[in-house]
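The records we work with from here on pair a chain with its fold. These numbers are not coordinates but entries in a learned vocabulary of local backbone shapes. To see the layout at work, look at the sequence and tokens printed below:
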Amino acid sequence: MKLDKFDREILRVMQKDATVSMAELSQYVGLSHTPCWRRVKRMEAEGIIRQKVTLLDAKKLSLGVSVFIYVTLKNHDGDSLTKFETAVQEIDEIIECHTTSGDKDYLLKVMVRSIEEYELLLKSKLTCLPLVDHLSSTFALKQVKNTTELPI
């Protein structure tokens, strides 16, 4: 789907505040209510707008420890990858899982309350993930940038 300047502006505004009313959105982008509404509905139907979410403050929820974990698997056949990826879905503390190129197979992002909580998670769940050969953890010291907005 080709996006014009109005579509892109609608997306920019909605990324900043998904609760914006259609009346406010149409004012921000310089369209009347109905054409703006049609564009939003079209982008929802096309899957460009997947969902509207509420963003939470991890620190205020006492989830102050972010850990990035590189995972290397023992096997790389399709069944092994599927088993690992299915198991990852069951661990709530894993908030992101990416396949990667190079000598590591996956990159996980984990959020926990403390180093001790991470140690328990590591021992009780992460090392038990199917076909894991090696885990390498790195703790984030400070988050320098955090955005949910795509560069459109």
